[in-house]
């Protein structure tokens, strides 16, 4: 299994998208740190109260992690959308599948290889954003809240990876990337719409649509639960997200929903293993 993880890293580094992702991530972190430092300096000059300073740091966390999830999704989509059909078209998959290993094991090995490096990237990005706000804007951090938020933030792109890999068994590389991007965008859009409903009240049809979207691709729901944990859970999260327009958080995914996401990923992996085992190479 270690061999496949190392091979996946070599494959990722050969792709231009890997270099582009690293450059974009570095630019984002530099600009974000610069913006946080300037804002923190302005607030210090204005001598705002500690409560207002805390609220501002939490708002920065909401915005920073919101754009960080874009980068993780970008990394997943462009690195894994051709993991099956792309390798099939260039003949690499046939050479790998010729080895004495079960097809389903090969599928899981490919998933694990990508999952390891996606998790490493997500952890580095998450820690960089949160630590920047902590050091420059004074965001208080509790180890338990930070670890729970980190695990959920890392779990979000792994859910997307599972969906992208399943789509790669059936769809050509470009079609799979477009389909996965649209589903991810729909889930993100639904989360933003739900944030706006805090001003308009609930609508039965809209609530059913948001629920269906969350079940179809629960990435945004997992992200919002991650944000909820980082901001201190029920004690503080509501203060930062009570009046942020589309970034508001009127509801928080429950523990039962998180268990659903585990079953969701397991079912998609099972379907992927089954489809890949029957796929004509």
From TrEMBL:
Any one GO molecular function term: ABC-type transporter activity
Keyword Ion transport among record annotations: no
GO CC, any one term: plasma membrane
Transcription as UniProt keyword: no
Domain of life of the native organism: Bacteria
Keywords tagged on the record: Membrane, Transmembrane, Transmembrane helix
Residue ranges crossing the lipid bilayer per the database entry: 17-34, 54-78, 111-134, 146-171, 178-199, 257-276
Protein name: ABC transporter permease subunit
């Amino acid at each position: 299994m270690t061999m496949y993880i190392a091979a996946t890293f070599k494959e990722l580094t050969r792709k231009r998208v890997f270099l582009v992702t690293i450059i974009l991530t570095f630019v984002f972190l530099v600009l974000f740190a610069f913006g946080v430092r300037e804002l923190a300096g302005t607030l210090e000059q204005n001598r705002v109260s500690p409560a207002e300073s805390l609220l501002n740091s939490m708002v920065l966390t909401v915005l920073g992690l919101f754009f960080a999830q874009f980068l993780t999704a970008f990394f997943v989509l462009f690195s894994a959308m051709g993991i099956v059909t792309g390798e099939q078209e260039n003949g690499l998959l046939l050479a790998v599948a010729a080895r004495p290993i079960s097809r389903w094991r090969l599928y899981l090995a490919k998933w694990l290889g990508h999952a390891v490096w996606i998790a490493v990237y997500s952890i580095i990005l998450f820690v960089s954003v949160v630590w920047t706000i902590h050091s420059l804007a004074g965001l208080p951090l509790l180890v338990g809240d930070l670890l729970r938020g980190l695990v959920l933030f890392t779990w979000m792109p792994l859910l997307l990876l599972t969906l992208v890999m399943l789509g790669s068994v059936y769809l050509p590389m470009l079609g799979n990337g477009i389909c996965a991007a649209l589903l991810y965008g729909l889930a993100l859009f639904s989360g933003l719409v739900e944030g706006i409903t805090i001003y308009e009240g609930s609508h039965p049809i809209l609530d059913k649509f948001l629920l269906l979207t969350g079940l179809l691709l629960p990435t945004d729901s997992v992200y919002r639960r991650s944000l909820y944990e980082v901001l201190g859970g029920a004690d503080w999260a509501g203060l930062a997200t009570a009046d942020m327009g589309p970034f508001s958080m009127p509801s928080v995914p429950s523990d039962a929903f998180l268990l659903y996401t585990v079953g969701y990923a397991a079912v998609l992996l099972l379907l992927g293993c089954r489809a890949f085992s029957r796929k004509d190479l």
